[in-house]
Amino acid sequence: MANLSILELGRVREGFTRTDALNDARRLAQQAESFGYKRFWVAEHHNMPAVTTAATSIVISHIAAGTKTLRVGAGGIMLPNHAPYIIAEQFGTLDALYPGRIDLGLGRAPGTDQTTLRALRRDPMSADRFPQDVLELQAYLGPVEDGQRIEAVPGSNSNVPIWILGSSLFGAQMAAAYGFPYGFASHFAPQALDDALAVYRRQFKPSEQQAKPYALIGVNIIAADTDEEAKYLATSQQMSFANLARGQRKLTQPPIDDINTYWTEAEKLRASHMLAVSIIGGPDKVRTGIQNLLARTEADELMVVSDMYDVDKRIRSFEIIADVMKSVNGT
Question: In the record, which residues are listed under signal peptide (predicted)?
Fold first, then answer.
């Protein structure tokens, strides 16, 4: 039986404000909790006009304050952008405010461009220290040792669960070596999905946090009451990927009738590679897609991106996905 979760970017829609985006995310989380989703993660990205989750720990608190049982966390914190000690304090504080509900997913990429990385005042080579920084962060979140002179307060003894996130074999190998749960970013970089999962499971070494491998994978699912409506709603995400290819920094656009009038063949090809792990359709098509993906990957958890313009249609998408997943799991 696979768990079901949500990845949120707090996207700003054309005609709406950044405040709207953050409050829409909170409203979605409240609905997701009622639908039975396990966790709701937000991702750190910088210098992106359509994304409002750069101050990730603050957004997590906003979401967690509006929910009661849903696990809320980072999917993820780009650790090279931060001192591990600061992240321990931030997530220790979140755990103190929302006990037992906070997750900490960690990524090695900067989540931005090199110019913005300089604005963050971080060393571009800090990604090379990722494994050491993860273990340092884990130590700050763990029990205080005799003679320890630096303590994260709050943070110490919280044991906030750490996840390793990635889209290559590096993250899979690291998660396996240190016994962390692993999340693969197949919702935008699916090429190494099967190899990464195989490496992670084959090389996994049990740890105090994780006794056996646990693999979460990202998947784009646009669900609606009919296949035709889902295809129409999916054009907003497809336009976003076309704009990415063009280097255009647009807000999320309303859907259009025919995506082929918007993107070129080259943009379509690039988007198709990035969106290869996607399911678009009504309930039956979504059910078949989920069943096939789980049969292929044996994932323990699906983290869904359902990127569309209309908030109510988006909530309906997540409701359909949750209902379909119950039938897939036989619950």
Answer: none
170-228 pLDDT per residue, tens: 999 999 999 999 999 999 999 999 999 999 999 999 999 999 999 999 999 999 999 99
Q: Are residues 141 and 11 in the same domain?
A: yes
- CB atoms near residue 323 (< 10 Å): 16
The answer to whether residues 131 and 1 belong to one domain is yes
* Same structural domain, 11 and 155: yes
Query: 319 is in which domain, residue-wise?
Result: 220-331
- Can you read off the two tokens belonging to residue 209? 């946090």
Whether 165 maps to a domain, the answer reads no
Q: Are 183 and 75 in contact (CB under 8 A)?
A: yes
203 in any annotated domain:
no
Say whether both 7 and 139 belong to one domain. Answer: yes
Whole-number mean pLDDT of the chain?
Answer: 95
pLDDT given for residue 116 in this prediction: 77
Give the Å distances, CA to CA, from 310 to 164, 180, 279, 304, 314: 32, 36, 18, 17, 6
Beta-carbon-side half-sphere exposure of residue 90 (alpha carbons within 13 Å): 20
Give the Cα separation of 311 and 331 in Å (integer).
27
Buried-exposed string 79-117: b where 16+ CB fall within 10 A, e elsewhere: bbbbebeebbbbbbbbbeebeebbbbbbbbbbbbeeebb
CB 38 within 8 A of CB 5: yes
Last residue of a domain, one of 160, 188, 206: 160
Q: Give the integer Cα–Cα distance in Å for 213 and 243.
A: 37
Structural contact between residues 111 and 44, judged by C-beta atoms closer than 8 angstroms = yes
Residue 256 lies in a domain: yes
- What phi and psi values does residue 165 have, to the nearest 5 degrees? -115, 150
Give yes or no: residues 16 and 146 share one domain.
yes
The answer to whether 284 and 321 have CB atoms below 8 angstroms apart is: no
Number of domains in the chain: 2
Sign, CA torsion 276/316/32/284: negative
pLDDT per residue over 290-301, tens digit each?
999 999 999 999
149 and 268 together in one domain: no
